Amino acid sequence: MATSQGRGAVKPVRVLIIDDSATMRKIIRFALEADTGIEVVGEAPDPTEAFRLVDTLDPDVITLDIEMPKMNGIDFLRRVMKHRPRPVIMVSTLTVNGAATTIEALARGAFDCVAKPTLTDSASFAELAEKVRAAGARRRRAGAPERSPTPRGAGAPPVGELPTIGVKAIAVGASTGGVEALIAMLTAFPADCPPTVITQHMPANFTKSFAERLDRMCRPRVQEAQDRTALARGNVYVAPGGDQHLEVVRRGDGLESRLRAGETVSGHRPSVDVLMTSVAAAAVGDAVGVILTGMGKDGAQGLLAMRQAGARTIGQDEASSLIYGMPRVAFEVGAVEKQIALNGIARAIFVGAATRKEGTSCHS
To answer: Which Pfam family, an example, fits this chain (predicted)?
Structure first.
Protein backbone atom coordinates (compact mmCIF):
# COMPACT_ATOMS: atom_id res chain seq x y z
CA MET A 1 0.00 0.00 0.00
CA ALA A 2 1.38 3.40 -0.96
CA THR A 3 2.53 5.73 1.78
CA SER A 4 4.00 9.20 1.63
CA GLN A 5 7.34 9.74 3.29
CA GLY A 6 9.91 12.48 3.34
CA ARG A 7 7.41 15.19 2.42
CA GLY A 8 8.59 17.49 5.21
CA ALA A 9 6.31 20.47 5.62
CA VAL A 10 4.31 19.76 2.47
CA LYS A 11 0.62 19.91 3.28
CA PRO A 12 -1.43 16.78 2.60
CA VAL A 13 -3.70 16.65 -0.43
CA ARG A 14 -7.23 17.46 0.75
CA VAL A 15 -9.85 15.15 -0.75
CA LEU A 16 -13.64 15.13 -0.96
CA ILE A 17 -15.22 11.70 -1.52
CA ILE A 18 -18.53 11.59 -3.43
CA ASP A 19 -20.39 8.26 -3.52
CA ASP A 20 -23.96 7.31 -2.68
CA SER A 21 -22.83 4.12 -0.90
CA ALA A 22 -21.80 4.60 2.72
CA THR A 23 -19.81 1.36 2.54
CA MET A 24 -17.91 2.51 -0.55
CA ARG A 25 -17.16 5.88 1.06
CA LYS A 26 -15.63 4.04 4.02
CA ILE A 27 -13.54 1.82 1.72
CA ILE A 28 -12.26 4.82 -0.26
CA ARG A 29 -11.54 6.73 2.95
CA PHE A 30 -9.59 3.73 4.27
CA ALA A 31 -7.62 3.53 1.01
CA LEU A 32 -6.70 7.21 1.09
CA GLU A 33 -6.07 7.76 4.79
CA ALA A 34 -3.48 4.97 4.79
CA ASP A 35 -1.33 7.51 2.91
CA THR A 36 0.04 10.21 5.21
CA GLY A 37 0.19 12.64 2.28
CA ILE A 38 -3.61 12.59 1.88
CA GLU A 39 -6.34 14.02 4.12
CA VAL A 40 -10.01 13.19 3.56
CA VAL A 41 -11.81 16.41 4.47
CA GLY A 42 -15.36 15.36 3.67
CA GLU A 43 -17.82 12.87 2.23
CA ALA A 44 -20.99 13.43 0.24
CA PRO A 45 -23.72 10.89 -0.63
CA ASP A 46 -25.13 12.90 -3.54
CA PRO A 47 -24.30 15.86 -5.81
CA THR A 48 -26.42 18.35 -3.83
CA GLU A 49 -24.41 17.81 -0.67
CA ALA A 50 -21.23 17.62 -2.76
CA PHE A 51 -21.73 21.11 -4.20
CA ARG A 52 -22.16 22.51 -0.70
CA LEU A 53 -18.97 20.80 0.51
CA VAL A 54 -16.96 21.92 -2.53
CA ASP A 55 -17.86 25.51 -1.62
CA THR A 56 -17.22 25.21 2.12
CA LEU A 57 -14.21 22.85 2.16
CA ASP A 58 -12.46 23.82 -1.10
CA PRO A 59 -10.83 20.38 -1.53
CA ASP A 60 -7.75 19.93 -3.71
CA VAL A 61 -9.13 16.78 -5.34
CA ILE A 62 -12.54 15.13 -5.70
CA THR A 63 -13.20 11.40 -6.08
CA LEU A 64 -16.48 10.98 -7.93
CA ASP A 65 -18.85 8.07 -8.40
CA ILE A 66 -20.47 7.74 -11.82
CA GLU A 67 -23.97 6.57 -10.89
CA MET A 68 -25.61 8.67 -8.17
CA PRO A 69 -29.12 9.84 -7.25
CA LYS A 70 -30.39 13.29 -8.30
CA MET A 71 -27.57 13.88 -10.81
CA ASN A 72 -25.15 11.60 -12.64
CA GLY A 73 -21.39 11.98 -12.46
CA ILE A 74 -21.12 13.56 -15.91
CA ASP A 75 -23.52 16.40 -15.09
CA PHE A 76 -21.78 16.98 -11.77
CA LEU A 77 -18.37 17.03 -13.48
CA ARG A 78 -19.59 19.54 -16.06
CA ARG A 79 -20.85 21.90 -13.35
CA VAL A 80 -17.73 21.59 -11.20
CA MET A 81 -15.43 22.23 -14.15
CA LYS A 82 -17.45 25.31 -15.09
CA HIS A 83 -17.87 26.88 -11.65
CA ARG A 84 -15.23 25.44 -9.27
CA PRO A 85 -12.67 23.59 -11.44
CA ARG A 86 -10.25 21.17 -9.74
CA PRO A 87 -8.94 17.65 -10.46
CA VAL A 88 -11.66 15.00 -10.39
CA ILE A 89 -10.85 11.29 -10.28
CA MET A 90 -13.65 9.01 -11.46
CA VAL A 91 -14.14 5.93 -9.27
CA SER A 92 -16.16 3.57 -11.42
CA THR A 93 -17.60 0.08 -11.39
CA LEU A 94 -16.34 -2.31 -14.08
CA THR A 95 -19.63 -2.38 -15.97
CA VAL A 96 -20.29 -1.61 -19.62
CA ASN A 97 -22.34 1.49 -18.75
CA GLY A 98 -19.94 2.56 -16.03
CA ALA A 99 -16.95 2.23 -18.37
CA ALA A 100 -18.59 4.18 -21.20
CA THR A 101 -19.62 7.00 -18.87
CA THR A 102 -16.16 7.11 -17.30
CA ILE A 103 -14.56 7.48 -20.75
CA GLU A 104 -16.95 10.36 -21.45
CA ALA A 105 -15.92 11.96 -18.15
CA LEU A 106 -12.24 11.65 -19.02
CA ALA A 107 -12.89 13.23 -22.41
CA ARG A 108 -14.69 16.08 -20.61
CA GLY A 109 -11.78 16.89 -18.35
CA ALA A 110 -11.68 14.40 -15.48
CA PHE A 111 -8.10 13.92 -14.28
CA ASP A 112 -8.08 10.11 -14.30
CA CYS A 113 -10.11 7.04 -13.41
CA VAL A 114 -9.78 3.99 -11.18
CA ALA A 115 -11.91 0.92 -10.68
CA LYS A 116 -13.81 0.91 -7.40
CA PRO A 117 -11.51 -0.56 -4.74
CA THR A 118 -12.41 -3.55 -2.59
CA LEU A 119 -11.23 -4.49 0.88
CA THR A 120 -9.25 -7.40 -0.59
CA ASP A 121 -7.60 -5.48 -3.44
CA SER A 122 -4.49 -3.76 -2.13
CA ALA A 123 -3.37 -2.85 -5.66
CA SER A 124 -6.45 -0.69 -6.22
CA PHE A 125 -5.76 1.10 -2.91
CA ALA A 126 -2.25 2.01 -3.99
CA GLU A 127 -3.41 3.14 -7.44
CA LEU A 128 -6.13 5.37 -6.01
CA ALA A 129 -3.77 7.04 -3.53
CA GLU A 130 -1.07 7.52 -6.18
CA LYS A 131 -3.48 9.25 -8.54
CA VAL A 132 -4.91 11.46 -5.82
CA ARG A 133 -1.38 12.60 -4.90
CA ALA A 134 -0.56 13.29 -8.54
CA ALA A 135 -3.79 15.23 -9.01
CA GLY A 136 -3.11 17.31 -5.91
CA ALA A 137 0.44 18.04 -7.00
CA ARG A 138 -0.79 19.08 -10.43
CA ARG A 139 -3.27 21.58 -8.97
CA ARG A 140 -0.68 23.08 -6.65
CA ARG A 141 1.88 23.47 -9.43
CA ALA A 142 -0.70 25.17 -11.61
CA GLY A 143 -1.66 27.52 -8.76
CA ALA A 144 -4.98 28.10 -10.50
CA PRO A 145 -8.21 26.39 -11.49
CA GLU A 146 -7.64 23.09 -13.22
CA ARG A 147 -8.78 23.26 -16.85
CA SER A 148 -11.74 23.48 -19.14
CA PRO A 149 -13.26 20.31 -20.61
CA THR A 150 -11.86 21.21 -24.03
CA PRO A 151 -9.09 18.83 -25.14
CA ARG A 152 -5.69 20.45 -25.16
CA GLY A 153 -5.15 19.49 -28.78
CA ALA A 154 -8.48 20.81 -29.97
CA GLY A 155 -8.27 22.95 -33.05
CA ALA A 156 -5.56 20.93 -34.76
CA PRO A 157 -6.69 20.46 -38.39
CA PRO A 158 -6.88 16.91 -39.73
CA VAL A 159 -3.80 15.82 -41.64
CA GLY A 160 -4.40 15.26 -45.33
CA GLU A 161 -3.92 11.93 -47.08
CA LEU A 162 -0.11 12.06 -47.16
CA PRO A 163 2.04 9.10 -48.14
CA THR A 164 3.75 7.54 -45.12
CA ILE A 165 6.75 6.19 -46.98
CA GLY A 166 8.44 3.30 -45.23
CA VAL A 167 6.34 3.49 -42.06
CA LYS A 168 5.07 0.02 -41.18
CA ALA A 169 3.67 0.89 -37.75
CA ILE A 170 3.00 3.72 -35.32
CA ALA A 171 3.30 2.84 -31.61
CA VAL A 172 1.79 5.12 -28.97
CA GLY A 173 1.92 5.04 -25.18
CA ALA A 174 -0.11 7.15 -22.73
CA SER A 175 -1.43 7.19 -19.19
CA THR A 176 -2.97 9.98 -17.08
CA GLY A 177 -4.47 12.55 -19.45
CA GLY A 178 -4.18 10.11 -22.32
CA VAL A 179 -7.87 9.98 -23.19
CA GLU A 180 -7.94 13.67 -24.09
CA ALA A 181 -4.52 13.47 -25.73
CA LEU A 182 -5.36 10.45 -27.88
CA ILE A 183 -8.66 11.99 -28.99
CA ALA A 184 -6.83 15.18 -30.00
CA MET A 185 -4.09 13.30 -31.85
CA LEU A 186 -6.11 10.55 -33.54
CA THR A 187 -8.88 12.82 -34.80
CA ALA A 188 -6.16 14.46 -36.91
CA PHE A 189 -5.03 11.12 -38.41
CA PRO A 190 -5.80 10.41 -42.08
CA ALA A 191 -8.10 7.50 -42.91
CA ASP A 192 -5.27 5.53 -44.54
CA CYS A 193 -2.79 5.80 -41.67
CA PRO A 194 -0.22 3.05 -41.11
CA PRO A 195 -1.35 0.43 -38.58
CA THR A 196 -1.26 2.15 -35.20
CA VAL A 197 -0.94 0.30 -31.90
CA ILE A 198 -1.70 1.97 -28.57
CA THR A 199 -1.17 1.11 -24.94
CA GLN A 200 -3.17 3.44 -22.70
CA HIS A 201 -3.08 2.67 -18.98
CA MET A 202 -6.71 1.97 -18.15
CA PRO A 203 -8.69 -0.52 -16.04
CA ALA A 204 -9.99 -3.75 -17.58
CA ASN A 205 -13.25 -3.37 -19.54
CA PHE A 206 -12.68 0.36 -20.05
CA THR A 207 -10.54 0.04 -23.18
CA LYS A 208 -13.35 -1.46 -25.28
CA SER A 209 -15.56 1.55 -24.54
CA PHE A 210 -12.63 3.86 -25.26
CA ALA A 211 -11.92 2.20 -28.61
CA GLU A 212 -15.59 2.45 -29.56
CA ARG A 213 -15.63 6.15 -28.70
CA LEU A 214 -12.50 6.78 -30.76
CA ASP A 215 -13.97 4.81 -33.66
CA ARG A 216 -16.97 7.16 -33.75
CA MET A 217 -14.69 10.21 -33.76
CA CYS A 218 -11.79 9.25 -36.03
CA ARG A 219 -11.34 8.63 -39.74
CA PRO A 220 -9.33 5.40 -39.31
CA ARG A 221 -11.12 2.37 -37.88
CA VAL A 222 -10.39 2.01 -34.14
CA GLN A 223 -10.81 -1.28 -32.28
CA GLU A 224 -9.64 -3.08 -29.19
CA ALA A 225 -6.68 -5.28 -30.16
CA GLN A 226 -7.16 -9.02 -30.44
CA ASP A 227 -4.64 -11.83 -30.48
CA ARG A 228 -3.08 -12.85 -33.81
CA THR A 229 -4.65 -10.17 -35.99
CA ALA A 230 -2.87 -8.99 -39.12
CA LEU A 231 -2.26 -5.26 -38.69
CA ALA A 232 -3.69 -3.30 -41.59
CA ARG A 233 -3.46 0.29 -42.84
CA GLY A 234 -6.33 2.49 -41.84
CA ASN A 235 -6.65 0.72 -38.49
CA VAL A 236 -5.85 1.68 -34.90
CA TYR A 237 -5.56 -1.04 -32.25
CA VAL A 238 -5.95 -0.28 -28.51
CA ALA A 239 -4.40 -2.73 -26.02
CA PRO A 240 -7.06 -4.31 -23.79
CA GLY A 241 -6.78 -3.25 -20.16
CA GLY A 242 -6.29 -6.02 -17.65
CA ASP A 243 -3.88 -8.90 -17.49
CA GLN A 244 -2.22 -9.10 -20.93
CA HIS A 245 0.52 -7.26 -22.79
CA LEU A 246 0.08 -6.16 -26.41
CA GLU A 247 3.01 -6.97 -28.69
CA VAL A 248 3.70 -6.73 -32.42
CA VAL A 249 5.49 -9.50 -34.34
CA ARG A 250 6.43 -10.09 -37.95
CA ARG A 251 4.08 -12.18 -40.09
CA GLY A 252 5.40 -12.71 -43.60
CA ASP A 253 5.80 -9.27 -45.13
CA GLY A 254 3.48 -7.69 -42.58
CA LEU A 255 2.89 -7.37 -38.87
CA GLU A 256 0.60 -9.16 -36.44
CA SER A 257 -0.71 -8.40 -32.96
CA ARG A 258 -0.10 -10.73 -30.03
CA LEU A 259 -1.65 -10.68 -26.58
CA ARG A 260 0.28 -12.50 -23.90
CA ALA A 261 0.08 -12.95 -20.16
CA GLY A 262 3.04 -11.98 -18.03
CA GLU A 263 4.28 -10.04 -15.06
CA THR A 264 3.86 -6.28 -14.89
CA VAL A 265 6.61 -4.32 -16.65
CA SER A 266 7.47 -0.81 -15.48
CA GLY A 267 4.56 -1.22 -13.08
CA HIS A 268 1.96 -1.93 -15.74
CA ARG A 269 0.19 -4.65 -17.69
CA PRO A 270 -0.30 -3.88 -20.50
CA SER A 271 2.98 -2.00 -20.64
CA VAL A 272 4.10 0.64 -23.13
CA ASP A 273 7.67 -0.66 -22.78
CA VAL A 274 6.59 -4.15 -23.88
CA LEU A 275 4.67 -2.79 -26.87
CA MET A 276 7.41 -0.47 -28.10
CA THR A 277 10.22 -2.98 -27.58
CA SER A 278 8.29 -5.45 -29.74
CA VAL A 279 7.72 -2.83 -32.44
CA ALA A 280 11.45 -2.02 -32.42
CA ALA A 281 12.18 -5.70 -33.14
CA ALA A 282 9.36 -6.29 -35.64
CA ALA A 283 9.42 -3.07 -37.67
CA VAL A 284 13.05 -2.11 -36.96
CA GLY A 285 13.46 1.47 -38.24
CA ASP A 286 10.28 1.52 -40.30
CA ALA A 287 8.13 2.87 -37.46
CA VAL A 288 7.24 5.93 -35.42
CA GLY A 289 7.02 5.91 -31.63
CA VAL A 290 5.06 8.48 -29.59
CA ILE A 291 5.00 9.00 -25.82
CA LEU A 292 2.09 11.08 -24.52
CA THR A 293 1.14 12.45 -21.11
CA GLY A 294 1.26 10.15 -18.10
CA MET A 295 2.71 9.38 -14.68
CA GLY A 296 5.78 7.24 -14.18
CA LYS A 297 8.38 5.94 -16.60
CA ASP A 298 6.61 3.27 -18.65
CA GLY A 299 7.61 3.53 -22.30
CA ALA A 300 10.98 5.23 -21.85
CA GLN A 301 13.05 2.09 -22.47
CA GLY A 302 10.75 0.85 -25.22
CA LEU A 303 10.91 4.16 -27.05
CA LEU A 304 14.68 4.15 -26.63
CA ALA A 305 14.78 0.70 -28.26
CA MET A 306 12.76 2.07 -31.16
CA ARG A 307 15.08 5.05 -31.61
CA GLN A 308 18.16 2.83 -31.45
CA ALA A 309 16.58 0.63 -34.14
CA GLY A 310 16.28 3.67 -36.40
CA ALA A 311 12.64 4.61 -35.82
CA ARG A 312 11.48 8.21 -35.49
CA THR A 313 10.45 9.07 -31.92
CA ILE A 314 8.29 11.87 -30.56
CA GLY A 315 7.49 12.99 -27.01
CA GLN A 316 4.65 15.27 -25.99
CA ASP A 317 6.07 18.51 -24.64
CA GLU A 318 5.65 19.66 -21.05
CA ALA A 319 3.34 22.59 -21.75
CA SER A 320 0.68 20.45 -23.44
CA SER A 321 0.97 17.43 -21.09
CA LEU A 322 -1.46 17.01 -18.23
CA ILE A 323 1.28 15.03 -16.45
CA TYR A 324 4.82 15.46 -17.79
CA GLY A 325 6.08 12.19 -16.37
CA MET A 326 6.39 9.53 -19.05
CA PRO A 327 7.46 12.04 -21.73
CA ARG A 328 10.02 13.58 -19.35
CA VAL A 329 11.67 10.27 -18.45
CA ALA A 330 11.75 9.22 -22.11
CA PHE A 331 13.40 12.53 -23.02
CA GLU A 332 15.94 12.25 -20.21
CA VAL A 333 17.11 8.77 -21.27
CA GLY A 334 17.60 9.93 -24.85
CA ALA A 335 14.60 8.12 -26.33
CA VAL A 336 12.90 11.23 -27.75
CA GLU A 337 14.06 12.63 -31.07
CA LYS A 338 11.68 15.61 -30.88
CA GLN A 339 9.39 17.08 -28.23
CA ILE A 340 6.25 18.51 -29.80
CA ALA A 341 3.04 20.14 -28.55
CA LEU A 342 0.07 17.79 -28.68
CA ASN A 343 -1.71 19.63 -31.48
CA GLY A 344 1.36 19.25 -33.72
CA ILE A 345 2.12 15.56 -33.21
CA ALA A 346 -0.11 14.13 -35.95
CA ARG A 347 1.32 16.55 -38.51
CA ALA A 348 4.86 15.73 -37.39
CA ILE A 349 4.18 12.02 -37.92
CA PHE A 350 2.69 12.30 -41.39
CA VAL A 351 4.41 15.31 -42.88
CA GLY A 352 7.71 13.94 -41.58
CA ALA A 353 7.00 10.61 -43.22
CA ALA A 354 5.93 12.26 -46.46
CA THR A 355 9.25 14.08 -46.78
CA ARG A 356 11.16 10.80 -46.91
CA LYS A 357 12.13 9.89 -50.42
CA GLU A 358 11.41 6.52 -51.97
CA GLY A 359 14.35 4.25 -51.31
CA THR A 360 15.70 6.33 -48.43
CA SER A 361 16.65 4.17 -45.48
CA CYS A 362 14.81 4.81 -42.25
CA HIS A 363 18.16 4.34 -40.52
CA SER A 364 19.75 7.32 -42.23
So the answer is: CheB_methylest
